[in-house]
Design brief:
With 351 residues, the chain is α/β, with parallel strands linked by helices. It has nine helices and eleven strands.
Length: 351
């Protein structure tokens, strides 16, 4: 008996290009003798032709999945999840670590609020995120700029959304952040902690990815004329912390943040009255009032460089000032070189 006609079953569209199921054959048990030579017209694929259920026997192993229907439990599950989330927040049935980091709130709420700014407004392009280790502690060292610390938040979203292992970045922030109402609580919930050696060492020992911007306010509040020129990296305390923990240092270069608030002046008297390190004057702020606080929609690039290992040094290396100076200078030069390379490749500030 000749082979039966094969009916192609095209399910690639419904499965997004997944592997095609084995083809099924029509039953030939009821075919009458002498009909094998009769021409058979071309059979249309099943996804365009209705075939009676009895015509194509399907085993339990080959049973295709039920087609997803709009609203088939999806909306109910989202509503139930949202209500469960609210119940946990109201009853206090959620966990925070010793630093106040709330992973559930960060993943479900805070990152969702930052993501439109990251994806649609600044259109951040991320490179080299695979250079961040998949497990264990790591210290990310980045340049700092932009008048307001938007670069730290965008770097945090970049790691959260793009790292293959789904790692979370814990940023070290200045004292001023934890002195401001509301900002203090949000920073703690996002996983930020005080920029001190003790907190950084604890996080690294716990296997966390820690981010630090050694330029501090010197980089954040520098004049627009000095954009993309790295300021002094302090005394190299971050290198000492990494050496003690034996964790790699990952240089990070951020392009695009310098232009969101072009700082053309500094009202030092106002800054002293408010207790701020500087009071920026930009082409739009404070002249346009609240509208002047809207950042310019620049195009960003965040590149994570090759990690610099520190586990090969002896324990006493953390007390060697010459070694710390050399490693600090190596990290700084790598970040500065990458900034220049990215600037040469950039065709436009905004596009």
């Amino acid at each position: 008996m000749a082979d039966a006609k094969v009916i192609p079953f095209d399910d690639d569209r419904s499965r997004g290009g997944a592997a095609q199921r084995p083809q099924r054959r029509r039953s030939a048990g009821n075919r009458r003798p002498g009909t094998e030579s009769v021409p058979v017209r071309e059979v249309q694929p099943l996804h365009t032709r209705a075939v009676p259920q009895d015509d194509v026997p399907v085993t339990s192993e080959e049973q295709p999945p039920e087609p997803a229907r709009d609203g088939d439990g999806g909306l109910e599950r989202r509503i139930a999840g949202g209500l469960a989330f609210l119940r946990r927040r109201l009853t206090g049935d959620y966990e925070v670590d010793d630093f106040g980091y709330d992973q559930e709130l960060t993943d479900q709420v805070l990152m969702s609020l930052l993501r439109p700014l990251y994806e649609q407004y600044f259109r951040v392009e991320v490179k080299g995120v695979e250079n961040i280790p998949s497990e264990g502690g790591a210290l990310i060292v980045a340049n700092h700029s932009g008048t307001l610390p938007m670069d730290g938040l965008m770097m945090q979203v970049a790691v959260h959304d793009n790292h293959p292992a789904g790692r979370h970045l814990r940023l070290l922030a200045a004292d001023l952040v934890f002195m401001l109402p509301v900002v203090n609580e949000l920073a703690r919930k996002l996983g930020h902690t005080l920029a001190c050696a003790e907190d950084a060492a604890r996080l690294l020992e716990q296997g966390e990815v820690v981010g630090v911007m050694p330029e501090g306010f010197k980089g954040l509040g520098k004049p627009f004329a000095d954009r993309y020129k790295l300021q002094r990296f302090g005394r190299g305390g971050f290198v000492s912390t990494a050496l003690r923990a034996g964790t790699p240092i990952v240089p990070c270069s951020i392009v695009g943040a310098e232009e969101i608030y072009p700082m053309i002046g500094n009202a030092k008297t106002v800054a002293r009255l408010l207790g701020f390190p500087y009071f920026p004057l930009t082409p739009t702020f404070p002249w346009l009032g609240p509208l002047g606080a809207i950042p310019l929609p620049t195009k960003w690039t965040i590149q994570f460089g090759e990690p610099i290992p520190t586990d090969g040094y002896p324990p006493e290396a953390a007390e060697d000032p010459m070694l710390m100076f050399n490693l600090t200078d190596q990290v700084r030069e790598q970040i500065q070189h990458t900034l220049y390379k990215l600037l040469v490749q950039r065709r436009s500030v905004f596009f």
